[in-house]
């Protein structure tokens, strides 16, 4: 017994030091003291002696810097250099672009919640709010999405003119260049509100404000280029597009086969240094109507006119539409969301070097320029459009499910529908928090490479789930397209968001964890960077520091993951109020588990992990759900811990924890080295898998929130266009919702009388009149039921068409003939 007590004392001291990340010196002192005190009190002198010898044998050599570096770190450095895959230039550039924000804490295994909560609450300025309440509101009032998506396959001229006049294309352009100079939050809010009315309008506005000519010029343009283009872009005098993608370069954008050859040509009698460009681009948004084309290509200088390099690399230029040889104007047709999108081509198009963004000295820097700017646009455009879409789904589906009656009840009362409504409400809460957190990171000056990928992936994937649920709840009403259908086009268009700006499968499998692991890990990048230090002594010193930091980090995460798992996340640092304290502790647990698994996977699989995309994707999911859950907790704090929001927060939080557990379990179960997989299972799930998905009861509370007006629903539908204008069915449905709810008890009274067979009339209004005369309902109730019946009829109605209205204006035969004639 005395031996066990002594061993236990040493073990507890070790565990406590590891848990709190104490230094090696502290560990040595604490364990020796614990061993000696408990060992001597318990009466186990020999055990104490042997344990102290072992403890000192570990600590002393490790504490002797010179010995440790020479005997341990040096051979490990050799091995590490051999097994570490060399980062390609592209990967190196991607890693160097971007910053690490709170996601770094989540990857640390010991997040500092005060860092999260001390971040300023994101808020719109007075001017930005006025813009939302003014031009954005007005633009929403002008949108007829059926006219755009079916009749015109374009925005009507007055909408184009309004967008340009009110500088919707200049949100990211500073005021000094005539733009709006908006914060990322305002930019996001504008896109969200537009997306509630039309995915086509929102996409059209998103693109010039995302990665493209304006942003590239702001960062790299020469003064002349900035002064020329930015004021014109701000007011839509110039319409930009940015062309990277081609038939052979999709997800792997670096493999573009488009090229430019530096050469001289006589232009207007003057010999001009320039380049001949040959390119074949497709899928380019706004290209058909663009007046200035941002073009990415690989630049070669075979005659060495610019220097001694022949292959200069990826380069970016701005080509005016009038450039001779630039073929542009045809359109693609992306899933019935007809924003302007099309191909562009050119062969041996000569342009002067002055068209290079930033001037000739920026030749070959194109890839760096792109990745440095990518994260900001990706953090805003698609997450905001998706968030606008899901907020509109809450407003529309919540109201529709309450007013649509079948089997004598609101369909919202059926548990099957309730399940879909709960998903819509819970996932919208999470998506909105995620979108806001990522915009706030941009406003804090971060370049959130990993969060932007998380936001892009999850906002659009959840958008897909919610769009599907919304359509299911609407039944035939969602399926029959026409001016009365507000849900079908949103559902159709979701895959566009899934595909663009890094298609989702690749974003999940390759980018979130791949970049997150190296970028956010406190030691991996340092170890890799140490390899490139030229002086051996400095290299060894840096590597040694990173390596032993890393080992301590790994041990600590194993202990933390196990301890927090063993206690069911009941101990540890926390924040917030009593309602969410446990949530922070759960996040501590899974943060430690992620850090432990990430280290183990990287340590055992090394460079091969890059190709084990299914493992990498699952660990990426864990990081994502940790990030999303943190964003929700921050939002809860920022909004003053509203009690009304708790069911939404709880539903979304438990969903995230359930998904974290599923992802961790999948990653560990499929880890190829079985003994390690077994060990990880014990350390991560000491009691097995205990997380459960949100309960049915919680789901019912969420469904209740989204089917009745209230403060939580108002927050969920923030920045949704709900003005009950003629063009806004969702707005009018929501305006009727209070009446629909007020009518419910009256309908029950009336229904009872109906069932008793006391009415002679067969039509509804006739029966209502009889009910009034019989005193079953009073005059006000009569008016209410009549008003609701008429209002609801409008919303459950669908469109029908004369067959001639549905044929295409131009048949395929006409089109082929036209193409043949042109050829
Ligand atoms: C409507 C629309 C608008 C667009 N606008 C523009 C624009 O304005 N400018 C521009 O330059 N481009 C634009 N794009 C291009 C867009 O960014 C690309 O379509 C996208 O990057 C994917 O390329 P791809 O379609 O060729 O798919 P592919 O690269 O062929 O990919 C097919 C599938 O394979 C997956 N995949 C590929 N590599 C991997 C990997 N290593 N690991 C796991 N999965 C992988 C992808 O995720 C995808 O699911 C647009 C595209 C669309 C559809």
From TrEMBL:
The name this protein goes by in its record: Acyl-coenzyme A dehydrogenase
Q: Point out the signal peptide segment.
A: none
The beginning of the lineage is: Bacteria, Pseudomonadati, Pseudomonadota, Gammaproteobacteria, Lysobacterales
Domain Acyl-CoA dehydrogenase/oxidase N-terminal residue range list: 145-237
Query: For the Acyl-CoA dehydrogenase C-terminal bacterial-type domain, which residue ranges apply?
Result: 518-801
Instruction: Name the cofactor(s) required for activity, per the record.
Output: FAD
Pathway(s) served: Lipid metabolism; fatty acid beta-oxidation
First-level EC class: oxidoreductase
UniProt entry keywords in alphabetical sequence: FAD, Flavoprotein, Membrane, Oxidoreductase, Transmembrane, Transmembrane helix
What family classification does the UniProt entry report for this protein? Answer: Belongs to the acyl-CoA dehydrogenase family.
Superkingdom is: Bacteria
State the organism of origin.
Dyella kyungheensis
**Assigned EC number:** 1.3.8.7, 1.3.8.8
Per its record, the protein catalyses: a medium-chain 2,3-saturated fatty acyl-CoA + oxidized [electron-transfer flavoprotein] + H(+) = a medium-chain (2E)-enoyl-CoA + reduced [electron-transfer flavoprotein]; a long-chain 2,3-saturated fatty acyl-CoA + oxidized [electron-transfer flavoprotein] + H(+) = a long-chain (2E)-enoyl-CoA + reduced [electron-transfer flavoprotein]
Instruction: Output the Pfam families linked to this UniProt entry.
Output: ACDH_C, Acyl-CoA_dh_1, Acyl-CoA_dh_N
Residue ranges of the TM segments: 28-60
The record places domain Acyl-CoA dehydrogenase/oxidase C-terminal at 364-509
Q: Which InterPro entries match?
A: Acyl-CoA_dehydrogenase, Acyl-CoA_Oxase/DH_mid-dom_sf, AcylCo_DH-like_C, AcylCo_DH/oxidase_C, AcylCoA_DH/ox_N, AcylCoA_DH/ox_N_sf, AcylCoA_DH/oxidase_NM_dom_sf, FadE_C
């Amino acid at each position: 017994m005395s031996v066990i007590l002594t061993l236990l004392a040493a073990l507890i001291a070790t565990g406590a030091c590891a848990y709190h990340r104490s230094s090696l010196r502290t560990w040595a002192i604490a364990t020796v003291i614990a061993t000696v005190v408990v060992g001597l009190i318990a009466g186990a002198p020999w055990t104490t002696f042997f344990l102290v010898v072992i403890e000192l044998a570990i600590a002393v050599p490790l504490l002797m810097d010179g010995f440790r570096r020479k005997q341990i770190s040096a051979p490990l450095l050799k091995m590490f250099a051999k097994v570490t895959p060399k980062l390609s230039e592209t990967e190196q550039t991607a890693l160097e672009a971007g910053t690490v924000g709170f996601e770094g804490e989540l990857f640390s295994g010991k997040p500092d919640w005060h860092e999260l909560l001390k971040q300023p609450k994101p808020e719109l300025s007075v001017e930005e709010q006025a813009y939302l309440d003014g031009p954005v509101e007005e633009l929403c009032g002008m949108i007829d999405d059926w006219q755009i998506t079916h009749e015109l396959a374009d925005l009507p001229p007055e909408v184009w003119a309004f967008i340009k006049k009110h500088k919707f294309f200049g949100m990211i352009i500073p005021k000094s260049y005539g733009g709006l100079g908006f914060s990322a939050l305002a930019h996001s809010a504008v896109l969200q509100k537009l997306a509630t009315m039309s995915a086509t309008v929102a996409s059209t506005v998103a693109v010039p404000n995302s990665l493209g000519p304006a942003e590239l010029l702001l960062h790299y343009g020469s003064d002349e280029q900035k002064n020329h283009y930015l004021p014109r872009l701000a007011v839509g005098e110039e319409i930009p597009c940015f062309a990277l993608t081609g038939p052979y370069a999709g997800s792997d954008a670096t493999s573009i086969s488009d090229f430019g050859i530096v050469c001289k040509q006589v232009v207007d009698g003057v010999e001009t240094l320039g380049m001949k460009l040959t390119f074949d681009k497709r899928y380019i948004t706004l290209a058909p109507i663009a007046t200035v084309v941002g073009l990415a290509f690989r630049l070669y200088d075979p005659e060495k006119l610019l220097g001694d390099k022949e292959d200069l690399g990826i380069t970016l230029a701005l080509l005016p539409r009038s450039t001779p040889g630039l073929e542009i104007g045809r359109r693609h047709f992306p899933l019935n969301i007809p924003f302007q999108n099309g191909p562009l081509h050119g062969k041996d198009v000569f342009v002067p070097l002055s068209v290079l963004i930033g001037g000739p000295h920026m030749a070959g820097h194109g890839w760096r320029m792109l990745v440095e700017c990518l994260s900001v646009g990706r953090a805003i455009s698609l997450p905001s459009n998706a968030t606008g879409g899901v907020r509109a789904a809450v407003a529309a589906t919540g109201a529709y499910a309450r007013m649509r009656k079948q089997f004598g009840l609101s369909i919202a009362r059926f548990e099957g529908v309730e399940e879909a409504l709960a998903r819509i409400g819970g996932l919208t809460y999470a998506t909105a928090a995620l979108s806001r957190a990522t915009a706030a990171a941009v406003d804090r000056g971060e370049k959130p490479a990993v969060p932007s990928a998380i936001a892009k992936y999850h906002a659009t994937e959840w958008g897909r789930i919610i769009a599907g649920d919304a359509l299911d709840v609407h039944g035939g009403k969602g399926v029959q397209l026409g001016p009365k259908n507000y849900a079908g086009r949103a559902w159709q268009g979701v895959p566009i968001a899934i595909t663009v700006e890094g298609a989702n499968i690749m974003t999940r499998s390759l980018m979130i964890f791949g970049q997150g692991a190296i970028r956010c890990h406190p030691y991996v990048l340092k170890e890799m960077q140490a390899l490139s230090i030229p002086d051996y002594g400095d290299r060894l010193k840096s590597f040694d520091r990173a390596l032993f930091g890393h080992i301590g980090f790994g041990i600590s995460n194993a202990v933390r993951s196990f301890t927090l798992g063993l206690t069911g996340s009941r101990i540890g640092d926390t924040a917030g109020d009593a309602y969410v304290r446990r949530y922070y502790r759960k996040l501590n647990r899974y943060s430690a588990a992620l850090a432990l698994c990430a280290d183990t996977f990287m340590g055992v699989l090394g460079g091969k992990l890059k190709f084990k995309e299914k493992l990498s994707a699952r660990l990426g999911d864990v990081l994502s759900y940790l990030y999303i859950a943190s964003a929700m907790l921050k939002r809860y704090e920022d909004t003053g811990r509203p009690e009304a929001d708790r069911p939404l927060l709880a539903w979304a939080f438990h969903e995230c924890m359930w998904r974290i557990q599923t992802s961790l379990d999948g990653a560990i179960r499929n880890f190829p080295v079985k003994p390690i997989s077994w060990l990880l299972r014990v350390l991560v799930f000491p009691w097995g898998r205990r997380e459960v998905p949100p309960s049915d009861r919680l789901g019912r509370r969420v469904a209740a929130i989204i089917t009745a007006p209230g403060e939580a629903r108002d927050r969920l539908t923030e920045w949704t266009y709900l003005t009950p204008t003629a063009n806004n069915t969702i707005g009018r449905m929501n305006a009727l919702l209070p009446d629909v709810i007020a009518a419910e008890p009256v309908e029950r009274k009336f229904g009872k009388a109906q069932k008793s067979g006391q009415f002679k009339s067969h039509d509804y209004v006739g029966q209502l009149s009889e009910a009034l005369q019989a005193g079953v309902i009073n005059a006000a109730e009569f008016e209410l039921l009549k008003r609701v019946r008429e209002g609801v009829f409008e919303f459950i109605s669908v469109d029908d068409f004369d067959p001639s209205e549905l044929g295409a204006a131009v048949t395929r035969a006409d089109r082929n003939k036209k193409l043949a004639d042109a050829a």
